[in-house]
Amino acid sequence: MLDIHLPLMLFVLVLFLFLIVILNKMLFQPLVSFMDDRDNSIAKDLEAAKGLTGNTDELNAKAEANISDAKNEAAAIRQKATDDEKSSAASKVENKQSELDKEYGSFIKKLSEDKENLKNSLLSEMPLFKESLKAKFSKL
Question: b/e per residue, 4-36, with b = 16+ CB within 10 A?
Answer without folding.
Answer: eeeeeeeeeeeeeeeeeeeeeeeeeeeeeeeee
